[in-house]
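Colleagues,

For the teaching module next term, I've prepared a clean inverse folding example: a structure given as tokens, and then the sequence designed for it. I'd like students to try predicting residues themselves before seeing the answer, so please don't circulate the second half yet.
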């Protein structure tokens, strides 16, 4: 009696099976690419649109809050600073520690532009130094439509990413002899310094504080220097990298710094100005 032999069917993978696997792999890769693209797009939208919107709205609220505070306190001030300018605090290497707007003698004296100015009505106690990351002034640049708060320090999270402009510690305060040095974002987070490359000689840069309004005038622009060029924010600002750029004698200066080229932080763009006038609020 013969034994029955069962035949096992053999499935031969043909071209159709290989094509099916390839198609699934291509489809899976396409889905992954689309997902990654959407995530990247959302990140770009967040950085370039949402952070700007949030920071600008927050900065504008802070400006209005400062203005309301100053208006409420203005009636009872009676005078403006004598010992040191608004924000107080001596500047390491920042030139004179006295307020340029109010000489210690209490008498009339020349302003930085060489013109006579009236004496303050009376002497007052110097304003306390601003707290770290405290907004205490407003920066206005009419030429490029800027109106933003100035806060103490240049911390990204506590100051710059809020859309504020940051004051470099150990540099002069508004109106003081020396260099009132500021930093701001050029892209994202409100980008207040986006267009400072458009500033030219003669453009006004106005700094408002609780006690006075200081008007600086753009005098020099350094289009690109190293991010480590600390000379640009010294009391007498002068580049340590680009020979011949900056000043050689003490004065009343303002310095605006930001990153360049746009969307990078490789170099720094510098705008310098000199104090032209000041007036009590």
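(Answer key — instructors only)
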């Amino acid at each position: 009696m013969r034994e029955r032999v069962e035949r096992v069917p053999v499935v031969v993978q043909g071209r159709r099976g290989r094509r099916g696997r390839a198609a699934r792999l291509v489809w899976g890769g396409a889905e992954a690419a689309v997902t990654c693209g959407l995530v990247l797009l959302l990140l770009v939208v967040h950085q370039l649109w949402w952070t700007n919107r949030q920071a600008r709205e927050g900065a504008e609220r802070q400006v209005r809050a400062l203005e309301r505070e100053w208006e409420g306190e203005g009636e009872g001030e009676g005078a403006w600073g004598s010992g040191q300018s608004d924000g107080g605090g001596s500047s390491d290497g920042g030139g004179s520690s006295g307020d340029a707007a109010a000489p210690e003698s209490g008498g009339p004296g020349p302003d930085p532009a060489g013109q006579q100015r009236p004496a303050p009505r009376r002497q007052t106690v110097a304003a306390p130094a601003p707290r770290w990351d405290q907004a205490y002034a407003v920066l206005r640049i009419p030429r490029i439509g800027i109106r933003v708060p100035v806060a103490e320090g240049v911390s990204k999270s506590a100051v710059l990413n809020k859309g504020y402009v940051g004051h470099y510690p150990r540099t002069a305060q508004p109106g003081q002899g020396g260099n009132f040095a500021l930093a701001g974002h050029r892209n994202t987070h409100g980008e207040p310094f986006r267009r400072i490359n458009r500033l030219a000689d003669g453009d006004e840069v106005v700094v408002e504080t609780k006690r006075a309004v200081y008007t600086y005038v753009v005098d020099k622009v350094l289009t690109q220097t190293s991010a480590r060029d600390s000379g640009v924010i010294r009391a007498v600002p002068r580049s340590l990298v680009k020979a011949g750029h900056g000043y050689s004698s003490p004065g009343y200066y303002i310095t605006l710094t930001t990153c360049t080229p746009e969307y990078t932080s490789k170099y720094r763009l510098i705008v310098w100005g000199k104090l032209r006038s000041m007036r009590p609020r």
